[in-house]
Each structure stands twice: as C-alpha cells, then as structure tokens.
Design brief:
By secondary structure, chain A is mainly α. Helices cover 79% and strands 0% of the residues of chain A. Chain B is mainly α. The chains are: A mainly alpha, B mainly alpha. Chains A and B meet through helix 2, helix 3, helix 5, helix 7 and helix 13 of A and helix 2, helix 3 and helix 4 of B. Bound molecules: protoporphyrin IX containing FE. The site of protoporphyrin IX containing FE (HEM) has 23 residues of chain A, from helix 1, helix 2, helix 6 and helix 8.
C-alpha cells in the first residue's frame, strides 16, 4: 500500500473497511465511558474507606453511576455493527481466532451479563447501604469484567493476525504472542478511555449545571482534566512502546505512506486535547470553550488511532486475497434499504430526544 | 468459503444442542420484548383514556422488568447467539453475512432506536406528559417489531430460500415462501409471551387489590386471542416447507416429531386456558398459574426452535451448504482429493491414538460428522453403529445420504472412509485387535469405491434433486 489509507485499496475493500472503522470508533467511544467510568467509581469507593460520601459531594461519580447502564447498552449495541462488518472484511481470520480461543472467548458473554447487572446495582441506592467490603467487591467486579472483556477482544485481535501460528495454537492451546504485547495494547485503550470518558462526562456535568435544573455548585473540573491528561499520557507511552516492540513489517506500515499521515492526525488530536484540558485545569470550572476544544481533540485522535490500529492489522493480513470476496459482497442488494433506514432511524432518535426535552408535564 | 476451520470437541454434547440452547433463551427473551412493546402501548392507552385506573402503575412496573430483562439478557444473548453460531458453523454464518449484511445492518439501526426510545421512556416517563410517553412507547414497540420483521426474513431463508436460488436477489431471499407465515406466527408468540408475563407482573404488584389485578389480567388476556390463528399459521408454514423437511417433522425423524409435539401440545394447553378461561370466563390467574403457563410457553419455544434447527438437515442453508460446512458442489472434488488434505489442523492429544489410520479417521470424523454426532455422547456414532459389522459400516457410510436422507453424502476418498470405520471401531473398543490395523486392503478399498460410485454425490432424496433443476 503506497497511497494514503484507504485510497490504495480496491473500492469495495476500502468501503467496507471504512464502514467498519466508523462503527468501531463509535463502539470504542461508548465503551470508554463505561470502562473508565467503572474504574473511577471503584477508586472513589475504595479511597474514603468505610464512610460513604454523599452523592452531592461527588457529582462525577453520581453521574457515572447514573449513566453507565445506558452507555453499556450503547457500547454493546454499537459493537454489533463492527461485529458484522469485521466478518465481511476479515472473514476467516476473525472466525478462526474465535474458534481457537473457544470457551476462553465465549466467557465474555456471561461475564458481561453479570457486569451489566452489577452496573444496575451500582446505580441503585441499595448497594450503598451494604458494608464497605461488599461495595468494593461489586464496583471492582464490574470494572474487572470490563477490563476482562477488552482483554478478550485484544487477544482475539492479535490471534487473528497470526495465521501461520493457528495449527500450533489449535493443538497446544498456547498463544503465539508475548504478554508484553497484550499488556501494552491494553494500556493504550485503558489510558485512552479516560480521555474519552472525561469528555463525555464533562459535557454531562456542564449540561446539568447549564440547565440549572438542580441548584448545584459548579463542578471542579480539575479531577476530570487530570484524568484526561493522565490517561492520554499513558496511552501514548504504551502506544509508542507497542510499535517499538512490534516487528519490522508493522513499523514499515505505520511509518509508511499509507498510515503515517494518521499518526500526524492522532498527534494533533492529542495536542488539541492537552490544550483544552489545560485550559480547564486553569479555570478549574467546566467551560464551553475548553470542552469544545477537548472534544474536537478527542474525536480527531480517536479517529487517527483507529486507522493506525487498522494499518497494523493490514500489515499482517493479506487484503488482496480478500478483496475478491469484498467485491462479491458489494454486489448484493440492500444498501439502499440500509441508508433509508439509517436516515429514518436517526430522525426518530432525534424525535425521542426532542420528546424528552419538550414533553415534560406542565 | 473453502477454508477449513478448526473444530472444537464438545465432549458428550453435540454442537447443534449448544446452538439450540442459546437460541431458545434468546428467542424467548427477544419475543417477550417485542410483545412487551405492543402490550405497553395498549396499557398506556388504557391509562391515558381513563379506562383502567391502575394501568399507569402497571406500565411503569412492567417496563422496569422489560429493561432489566430484555436490554440486558436479550441484548447479550443476542451477541451470544452470534458468537455461538460462529463456533458451531463459521461457514454458515459467513455465507449469511455475505448475502444479507445490509439487512442485518438495517436491523441494527432498529436496535439503536430501540435502546434510545426505550431508555428515554424508562428514565423520563414519570416526568413526561401522556402524549410524549405514548409516542416513545410506540416508537419503541415499532422498532422492536421491525427487528423481528428483519431477522425473520433471514432465518426463514435458511429453510425456504425459494426464488433466491435462481435470482440471488436479496429481496427474493428475504420475502421467501416461509416469510409471512413465520412472521405472523412469531408475532403472535410475542404477544402471548408478553401477556403471560403481564399476569406474573400484575401478581407481583403489592399495592393492588384483587379486583384491580383481575381487571389488569383480563385486559392482558385480550392479547392472547390471536392464538386462535396459530393452527392455521402452522399448517401454512408446513405447506411451504420443503417436502422432505416436512416429512422429517411429521414422523420421519422421531426426535423432530417429539419436539413438534411438545411445541404443539404446550401451545394448545396455553391457548385453551387463555381462550376458555381467561377471555371467555374472565378467570383470575395467580402468579403460580401464570408462571406455569410461561414455562409451558418456554417449552413451546424450545420445541419450535429445535424443529427449526433440525428440519434443515442435512443443510444449514438449504441447497447451498451442508451442516458440516461442505458445499454440495464440493463433494465430487473431495471424493478425489480427500477431505483431510486441506485441513491444516492436527489432532489434540495426538499420542492417544494407536496409529495413523485411526488418526486419519479421527480427522475425517471431525470434518464430516462431528457437527451432528459425538463419538460416545449424544447421537453417538459408536452406539448407532453398535449392531453393524465393518462391512455394513463401509456400505452405510459410503451411501450416507441414502442411509438416512438427513445426512449429507460422504465427501472423501475410499481410504478416508476406511479410516473412519477403523476410528469408530477403535473408539468403540480400544482393546480389540483390528484386522487391517495400520493399512487398508486393496480389495476392501475397491468395494468401498464401488459403493461410493453407486451412492453418487447428490443429496439423498430423489424428489428433492429433481426439484432443483
Ligand atoms: C464493556 C464491554 C466491552 C469492552 C470493554 C470492549 C472493549 C473492546 C476493545 C478494547 C477492543 C479493541 C481491542 C484491540 O484492538 O486490542 C474492542 C474491539 C471490538 N469490540 Fe468490544 N468491548 C466490549 C463489548 C463488545 C461487545 C458486546 C461487542 C459485540 C457486540 C463488541 C464488539 C467489538 C468488535 C467487533 C471489535 C473489533 C475487533 C477487531 O477489530 O479485532 N465489543 N472491544
């Protein structure tokens, strides 16, 4: 691939990859909220010891607890779309990785079911009347489940890219990559999740204040800014280390013509985020300007990182062989129906939001 | 899809059962959610128009249950069923995705609408005016029914692809002969499940007195009335089913018939109780009875899903793909090159086997038989062949599609077939000395070859071959 991604690819391949990437980025954004949110709630549950801090004194935790169940629904639903398109784009490598991991892979479903109910428990008032130990177990259990789920996806992804090792993995069950690769990759998304969560939760807190529905003190934006900047730093360190430890083919791809521009994009996004959160840190209150800046940066860098991640995969999987299948897939009908449905559904979603805002009982 | 996938061993359980198990739970929950949307609209209307003073309270309680069950378990068993389908037959799911991805993508947009409208109602309905609340509910109900509408097209295509076989047009596949009867049928099942769940929920609302409960239950029972159409729809469905599938479920396969009878029996019991007791005599039903009826409904769903999964045999996609992931047009070639030559995966516990012939047989079994049989668990080949001598095995495997027409033709060489026989022999009795241990005798192979020739490479049922052309 010598041209800028995805223009060097045959159009059906480029098209399905782009749709995959767009829906994947959406999945990541929602998932980040739940992952970083649950980790944060775990921290603020453990830290004060046996006393429970009233919710009014921890608006961020209160918002997260309130909204995580919905955002988990959103993350799961948004995950269905890339799950569909990855099967068109990568087909047997995705399937084979699933099959080779088998029950280790299937475990993610029951784990997520349990974690989902734990989120409802965390949202309820009941949990906070229970003893310290139980509270900590519940919040830590939910966080651990999300980390585990992400871990499963990472392992599946890495295994899918190693076709030469599959027969060996089938017989021995041993995974063909170092735990270093897995850990670094996980640190990228764990770190990054704090940056995204801070943006979404930042807007929620800002909105709560701006609408004056509740007479509340302005929220101190420093914890959010701190988390965002810390997470961003962690993700970048881990990302650089990941690429350094990867093989030469990967590095050639990432620093080659097709992908390098996206590194620039991701770096710019990160810088914009640093500026936005730096501004929030100084003003110590949530401001529209700071939030808009941070949001723009987050969207830009998340998009860049998603493409870089794809570049790393493409260096390992031969897309030219698959492109025949993509062309065949592109001949089946139904795309028009999908576009119409997407437009209608978007309008209806807009209507739902409008109803909630406008339909309050007098 | 010509890649050979790694196959996992489920011990005594056959993969089809795992699939059916996950599918039953998911279908049950998803249909409850679809019916629940409609039922809630009805009760919200009762509340708005002042027809039932307790309807409002009911709506709020029922919706909570719906969110806790359908948004969590329904959604995640949906992901689960997808991942399970990949485990059981990646070739099947791959082919379905290739042909219908835009329909699935369309269904996905409705999932998004479902969660947004559902959560909006859940979070805010107590603050909203009646009209806004009703609109949200109506959007929710319509979105969930649309997801049923779409998935129903894809699933019914698997059994009755109809004109799609000639045109390969997505919409010919979608509006296949089985589409309408199964859509109506599933819609009625959804209403039934939602109404029965409503009876359970009503009984669990402590603040209501018996009169109030009775009135809510009698309202919910109206949603059971469409059940009277079920026998007709069932007959319609049987009529559009391919003749061989129909004959399996109507007696050709004892197991299928049993499941069909469970489905019919449970539905009739629910229907009779609902129509005569709840609608005509306006009987009160307590939570024990309601739960019992709901359990019967689960049984009916289970029976129905088993029949749906089972009646496709030997195909997982009719005329396109056999259950063991071999395509009908691949059989002839695999008879030449063998089904193990392109299988890169070795055997787990390789050292357990006595010699290479048995190892080869194990691979043949894994590729061609393991999706429907276990070695010594459910539907075990060692038991099914228990009364046969080696020659009978050779004959019956060579003519597999004629032995039982819900099996695909054998798709391998004579050497592979012989090794399969030896593998099954060894599995039945590892201690026994095998006459041709290690090597095969040319006379035997020649005989197998002749039988394979006689069997041909087409699927078992003559009538059905005829219809394809
Ligand atoms: C809270 C639960 C979840 C978490 C924390 C999570 C996390 C992740 C992470 C970290 C990745 C990227 C892995 C990597 O590149 O190393 C990922 C990828 C993905 N996730 Fe999720 N996920 C969750 C739930 C789901 C669900 C329920 C689905 C399916 C409906 C899903 C679908 C996907 C898909 C399709 C990918 C892309 C895989 C690939 O490209 O190899 N996720 N997820």
């Amino acid at each position: 691939m010598d041209n800028l991604f995805p223009s060097g690819l045959p159009w059906p391949t480029a098209f399905y990859l782009t749709v995959y990437l767009m829906t994947f980025a959406m999945h990541q954004a929602f998932m980040h909220y739940v992952l970083a949110g649950s980790l944060y709630v775990t921290w603020v549950t453990i830290r004060p010891g046996r006393e429970t801090v009233p919710l009014t004194e921890q608006p961020l935790a209160a918002t997260l607890r309130d909204w995580m169940p919905f955002l988990l629904s959103a993350a799961i639903t948004a995950g269905v779309a890339p799950l569909l398109f990855i099967q068109i784009v990568y087909q047997h490598s995705f399937y084979t990785a699933n099959l080779l991991l088998w029950w280790r892979w299937m475990a993610l479903v029951p784990v997520l079911i349990i974690a989902f109910y734990l989120l409802y428990l965390i949202k309820s008032r009941t949990l906070w009347k229970w003893p310290y130990f139980v509270r900590v177990m519940v919040v830590a259990g939910a966080s651990a489940s999300f980390v585990f789920t992400g871990f499963c996806w990472t392992v599946n992804h890495l295994l899918a890219n190693r076709s030469e090792a599959w027969p060996e993995v089938y017989v021995t069950g041993q995974l063909p990559f170092s735990s270093m690769a897995v850990v670094l990759r996980m640190l990228v998304w764990i770190g990054g999740s704090f940056a995204t969560m801070s943006v979404i939760a930042g807007w929620q807190l800002w909105y709560r204040h701006a609408t004056h529905r509740e007479a509340i003190e302005p929220v101190n934006s420093r914890p959010l800014a701190g988390m965002a900047l810390g997470g961003l730093g962690l993700a970048w360190l881990a990302g650089v280390a990941y690429i350094m430890q990867a093989d030469e083919m990967t590095r050639n791809m990432v620093f080659g013509r097709a992908i390098f521009a996206y590194i620039v994009v991701a770096v710019i996004g990160a810088i914009v985020q640093v500026v936005g959160w730096g501004f929030q840190w100084r003003s110590s209150q949530l401001q529209t300007t700071g939030l808009v800046t941070a949001t723009t940066g987050a969207v830009v860098s998340l998009s860049g990182v998603c493409v870089i991640r794809e570049g790393i995969r493409i260096s390992a999987i031969d897309l030219t062989g698959l492109s025949v299948r993509h062309s065949e897939a592109a001949t089946v009908g139904g795309f028009g129906l999908f576009v119409v449905a997407a437009v209608v559904v978007s309008l209806l979603i807009g209507w739902c939001v409008w109803l909630v805002r406008a339909g309050a009982s007098p | 899809m010509d890649q050979v996938f790694p196959v996992n061993d489920y011990g005594p359980i056959m993969p089809g059962l795992v699939m059916a198990g996950v599918a039953i739970v998911h279908v049950f929950l998803a249909q409850f959610a679809v019916g629940g949307g409609v039922l809630l609209c009805y009760f919200q209307w009762l509340a708005m128009t002042g027809r039932d003073p307790h309807a409002r309270q009911f709506v709020s309680g029922y919706f909570k249950l719906l969110v806790l069950i359908s948004f969590v378990l329904g959604a995640l068993t949906g992901v689960g069923i997808w991942l399970t389908a990949i485990q059981i037959s990646p070739a099947t799911i791959g082919s379905m995705v290739d042909h219908f991805h835009w329909l699935w993508a369309t269904e996905w947009t409705f999932f998004c609408l479902e969660i947004v409208s559902g959560y909006s109602f859940y979070r805010y309905h107590s603050r909203l005016n009646d009209r806004a609340a009703m609109t949200l509910l109506a959007i929710y109900a319509a979105a969930s029914w649309m997801s049923l509408f779409i998935i129903n097209g894809i699933l019914s295509w698997q059994l009755t692809p109809g004109r799609w076989l000639e045109t390969h047009n997505v919409f010919d596949g979608f509006f296949n002969p089985g589409f309408w009867p199964s859509l109506f049928f599933r819609t009625i099942v959804s209403l039934t499940l939602a109404a029965l769940a409503a009876c359970v929920v009503t009984n669990m609302m402590p603040s209501l007195n018996r009169g109030a409960r009775r009135s809510l239950i009698n309202r919910a029972a109206l949603m059971l009335v469409p059940m009277v159409l079920m026998p007709g729809l069932g007959i319609w469905f049987l009529a559009v089913m391919p003749a061989d599938s129909r004959s399996w479920v109507l007696g050709g396969s004892p197991a299928m018939m049993l499941f069909l009878n469970i489905a019919i029996g449970s539905s009739m019991a629910i229907g009779a109780y609902a129509i005569f007791g709840m609608v005509m005599q306006r009987l009160y039903i307590n939570s024990a009875t309601a739960s019992l009826l709901l359990m019967l409904a689960f049984g009916a769903t289970a029976g129905g899903e088993f029949v749906r999964e089972g009646s496709r045999k030997p195909y997982s996609i009719r005329y396109v793909l056999y259950s063991n992931a071999i395509r009908p047009d691949q059989v002839a070639r695999l008879r030449d090159i063998g089904c193990t030559s392109d299988d890169p995966y070795g055997l787990r516990n390789d050292s357990m086997y006595p010699d290479d012939q048995v190892r080869l047989g194990a691979k043949v079994f894994r590729r061609q038989c393991s999706v429907c049989h276990t070695v010594s668990g459910t539907n075990a080949v060692t038991e099914l062949t228990g009364a046969w001598d080696q020659n009978q095995m050779r004959l019956n495997f060579a003519k597999l599609q004629h032995t039982k027409p819900f099996m695909p033709p054998f798709a391998g060489t004579a050497v592979e077939l012989e090794s399969l026989v030896q593998f099954i022999n060894w599995s039945s009795d590892p201690q026994a000395t095998r006459p041709h241990a290690g090597d095969s005798d040319p006379g035997t192979l020649g005989q197998i070859e002749a039988w394979l020739q006689e069997a041909g490479t087409a699927p078992g049922n003559f009538e059905q071959n005829h219809k394809r052309h």
